[in-house]
């Protein structure tokens, strides 16, 4: 046998060898293994114990007879070992006798519905829960206490399949622990939806919010109205690039897809086995253009209408006619048959009133029902739908716009425009799910690196997710009880593939899982990052395309006394950081970061760094260019800048902002000529001034048309020192350099000329160009 095949066979032989050993023999082989408890979400109460419990072919999993769901939990636990370990523990009913058993039992005395007790000793594992869902969550805890190789889809060589001894008493903080997925903008296959559900279950999240209809596509088969998917399920093409950039460009390719009712049933059954509830969302009265393309008679205009090919909010909405309500009731009746969830989500957000304002029927209905305006007409619409859902023993959930015009009597509010809507709804006695678009929108950028894949905008890193608390401080007593929990939202305008969805979701979803489950007192960012670091091996085995920023080096530069000081950080606390200051690639032989570095003055410094463990790189190399120029930390005044924030001092902080995050505090925007005056405090010899701007013509952002530099010895009398005219490029960073010859100055004045009014046919036409300015480097 050649070397290649011998290497391939090692895991199989090793797994087979281990399966032939008794549990006592296995435990004896590595009995001194260190116990670690890197469980996410953190259990409510956990007591580490000495010793380990080995699992092998002789292990029996015993469960309480007569409960079908408990049998599924037992089979699930046994099945985790089949592939990676090469054996499957025996599953049967009964009580524990002898050693090396796992006993799963129910006990009504456990107070929490989803709670469980887990006790692991060297001889036995005992899972006690009020019902099978609690037992299932105990199994997820066991799963995370096992080696990460348990997640592998291939047989693995592991010295010992064993668990650290421990006592855990656990229950969730919130009853609603959700994650959303929009399949209207981009469509994802059934197998990916199942994988998505698997990950929810692993981290003890219990709700999957399936956003099934949109302006850009209707994704659920409705048998009474086949054109919803035949016509509404497909758009003729899709926007290329960002939706905020004009003129729009399209790919010219027909796009779409939908789930048959059989596929929906398959996914619902799959989720039920993982104790995940699926809440379907059927958008109304807005975000309905795909439906109205198929059935324009339910619009205010009668059509023709097209499935939308770009992102945004559009005017075509359902018209509140009796035939429209009959159509929606027919649709929802089929949806209710497919989804056993007590909740049906109806959207209710971003509904323009333009069509209603000019629709004779709508205006007559407003008068007939004694409504004040179109906002109350929306409330009327929502109330009609809620009444129907209640008649079917279902409850309505809507985005917080359903508060406008008066809230439907039994509605639950999903608060996305911050927390204000949720707080108001809770005070009115309505249940609330918090999903504010700052910390819990997972379509935002999660890194400020310029090589991040295109996103809608914003910045939400994992720390912001983790530090969010769904319980507002304003709410006390009965009102606080209406906060059911929190949900992360995944809108897919800029996520065309399943891999991209995973990149945006993980590991931020893992942080949200702990927010929803663990007691607030148990949540600690530093301690969480220690546990999170071990999760990435699991994600690799599960073939999850997670974002690797956990291992990245980030930089924090500060100015004091005219000196630029650099600090480096990584979430991977046990990793070592190695760096270079000359732009070369760092390795384990480069300088090791120990503490903050005071950078040499008068230079452009390209820092590169990476995390390492035992000489091996953990993450990618990150970089930051810093400018220890003459103006760093010096006073700067701006003439032509009319905003208070960000402060002009950011133009003298020695660093540049990320191109993708022009609004995150490092860039100053202006629409007229701007003059920046910098006092160097003493006369200096100057060679050049470099201005950092950017060009995004499709967003109405232009570099200055000209940059002029004037100098002075006293700050009163200025003379020209140099100027540069700028050629406008379509997009990209613009570093504008003005060379100065044999110049000395104490005060430097930099004038940036605005390009003027944007011409017709281009983004922002008729307005002065927006110029974005970052660091002004004086060398």
UniProtKB/TrEMBL annotation:
<dbReference type="InterPro" id="IPR025705">
    <property type="entry name" value="Beta_hexosaminidase_sua/sub"/>
</dbReference>
<keyword id="KW-0378">Hydrolase</keyword>
<dbReference type="InterPro" id="IPR015882">
    <property type="entry name" value="HEX_bac_N"/>
</dbReference>
<feature type="domain" description="Glycoside hydrolase family 20 catalytic">
    <location>
        <begin position="174"/>
        <end position="519"/>
    </location>
</feature>
<dbReference type="Pfam" id="PF13287">
    <property type="entry name" value="Fn3_assoc"/>
</dbReference>
<dbReference type="GO" id="GO:0030203">
    <property type="term" value="P:glycosaminoglycan metabolic process"/>
</dbReference>
<dbReference type="InterPro" id="IPR029018">
    <property type="entry name" value="Hex-like_dom2"/>
</dbReference>
<dbReference type="InterPro" id="IPR026876">
    <property type="entry name" value="Fn3_assoc_repeat"/>
</dbReference>
<dbReference type="InterPro" id="IPR015883">
    <property type="entry name" value="Glyco_hydro_20_cat"/>
</dbReference>
<feature type="domain" description="Beta-hexosaminidase bacterial type N-terminal">
    <location>
        <begin position="37"/>
        <end position="171"/>
    </location>
</feature>
<comment type="similarity">
    <text>Belongs to the glycosyl hydrolase 20 family.</text>
</comment>
<dbReference type="InterPro" id="IPR017853">
    <property type="entry name" value="GH"/>
</dbReference>
<dbReference type="GO" id="GO:0004563">
    <property type="term" value="F:beta-N-acetylhexosaminidase activity"/>
</dbReference>
<dbReference type="Pfam" id="PF02838">
    <property type="entry name" value="Glyco_hydro_20b"/>
</dbReference>
<dbReference type="GO" id="GO:0016020">
    <property type="term" value="C:membrane"/>
</dbReference>
<dbReference type="Pfam" id="PF00728">
    <property type="entry name" value="Glyco_hydro_20"/>
</dbReference>
<keyword id="KW-0326">Glycosidase</keyword>
<feature type="active site" description="Proton donor">
    <location>
        <position position="350"/>
    </location>
</feature>
<dbReference type="GO" id="GO:0005975">
    <property type="term" value="P:carbohydrate metabolic process"/>
</dbReference>
<protein>
    <recommendedName>
        <fullName>beta-N-acetylhexosaminidase</fullName>
        <ecNumber>3.2.1.52</ecNumber>
    </recommendedName>
</protein>
């Amino acid at each position: 046998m050649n070397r290649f095949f011998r290497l391939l066979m090692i895991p199989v032989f090793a797994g087979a060898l281990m399966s032939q050993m008794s549990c006592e023999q296995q435990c004896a082989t590595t009995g001194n293994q260190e116990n670690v408890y890197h469980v996410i979400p953190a259990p409510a109460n956990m007591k580490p114990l000495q010793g380990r419990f080995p699992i092998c072919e002789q292990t029996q999993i015993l469960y309480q007879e007569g409960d079908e769901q408990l049998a599924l939990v037992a089979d699930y636990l046994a099945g985790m070992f089949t592939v990676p370990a090469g054996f499957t523990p025996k599953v049967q009913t009964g009580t524990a006798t002898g050693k090396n058993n796992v006993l799963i039992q129910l006990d009504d005395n456990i107070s929490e519905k989803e709670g469980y007790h887990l006790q692991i000793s060297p001889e036995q594992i005992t899972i006690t829960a009020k019902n099978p869902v609690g037992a299932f969550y105990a199994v997820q805890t066991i799963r995370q206490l096992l080696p990460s190789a348990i997640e592998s889809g291939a047989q693995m060589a592991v010295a010992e399949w064993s668990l650290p001894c421990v006592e855990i008493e656990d229950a969730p903080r919130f009853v609603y622990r959700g994650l959303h997925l929009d399949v209207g903008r981009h469509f994802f296959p059934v197998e990916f939806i199942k994988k998505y559900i698997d990950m929810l279950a692993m981290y003890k999240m219990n709700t999957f919010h399936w956003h099934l209809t949109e302006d850009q596509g209707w994704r659920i088969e409705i048998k009474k109205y086949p054109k919803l998917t035949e016509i509404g399920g497909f758009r003729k093409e899709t926007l290329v690039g960002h939706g905020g950039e004009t003129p729009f460009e399209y790919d010219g390719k027909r796009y779409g897809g939908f789930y048959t009712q059989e596929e929906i049933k398959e996914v619902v059954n799959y989720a039920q086995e993982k104790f995940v509830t699926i809440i379907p969302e059927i958008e109304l009265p807005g975000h309905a253009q795909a439906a109205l393309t198929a059935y324009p008679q339910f619009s205010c205009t009668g059509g023709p209408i097209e499935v939308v090919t770009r992102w945004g909010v559009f005017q075509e909405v359902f018209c509140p006619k009796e035939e429209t309500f009959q159509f929606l009731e027919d649709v929802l009746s089929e949806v209710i048959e497919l989804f056993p969830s007590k909740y049906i989500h109806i959207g209710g957000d971003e509904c323009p009133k333009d069509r209603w304002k000019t629709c004779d029927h709508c205006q007559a209905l407003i008068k007939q029902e004694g409504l004040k305006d179109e906002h109350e007409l929306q409330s009327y619409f929502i109330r009609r739908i809620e009444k129907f859902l209640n008649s079917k023993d279902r409850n309505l959930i809507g985005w917080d716009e359903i508060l406008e015009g008066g809230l439907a009597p039994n509605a639950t509010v999903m608060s996305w425009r911050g927390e204000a809507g949720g707080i108001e709804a809770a005070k009115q006695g309505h249940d609330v799910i918090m999903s504010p678009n700052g910390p819990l929108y997972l379509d935002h950028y999660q890194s400020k690196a310029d090589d991040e894949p295109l996103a809608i905008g914003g910045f939400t890193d994992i720390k912001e997710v983790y530090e969010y608390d769904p319980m507002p401080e304003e709410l006390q007593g009965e009102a606080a009880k209406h906060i059911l929990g929190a949900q992360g939202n995944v809108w897919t305008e800029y996520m065309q593939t399943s891999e991209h969805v995973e990149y945006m979701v993980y590991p931020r979803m893992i942080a949200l899982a702990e927010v929803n489950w663990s007691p607030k007192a148990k949540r600690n960012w530093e301690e969480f990052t220690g546990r999170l670091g071990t999760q990435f091996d699991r994600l690799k085995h599960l073939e999850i395309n997670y974002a690797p920023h956990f291992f990245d080096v980030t930089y924090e530069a500060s100015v004091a006394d005219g000196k630029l000081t650099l600090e480096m950080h990584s979430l991977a606390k046990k990793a070592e950081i190695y760096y270079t200051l000359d732009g070369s690639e760092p390795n384990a032989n480069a300088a090791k970061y120990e503490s903050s570095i005071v950078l040499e003055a008068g230079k452009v410094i390209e820092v590169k760094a990476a995390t390492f463990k035992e000489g091996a790189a953990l993450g990618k190399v990150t970089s930051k260019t810093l400018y220890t120029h003459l103006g760093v930390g010096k006073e700067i005044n701006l003439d032509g800048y009319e905003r208070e924030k960000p402060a002009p001092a950011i133009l003298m902080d020695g660093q540049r902002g990320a191109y993708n995050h022009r609004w995150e505090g490092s860039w100053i925007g202006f629409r007229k000529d701007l003059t920046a005056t910098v006092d160097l405090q003493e006369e200096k010899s100057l060679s050049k001034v470099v201005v950092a701007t950017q060009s995004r013509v499709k967003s109405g952002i232009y570099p200055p048309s000209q940059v002029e530099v004037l100098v002075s010895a006293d700050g009163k009398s200025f003379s020209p020192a140099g100027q540069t005219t700028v050629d406008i490029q379509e997009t990209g960073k613009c570093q504008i350099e003005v060379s100065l010859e044999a110049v000395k100055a104490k005060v430097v004045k930099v004038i940036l000329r605005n390009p003027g009014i944007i011409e017709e046919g281009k983004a922002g036409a008729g307005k002065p160009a927006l110029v974005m300015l970052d660091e002004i480097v004086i060398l």
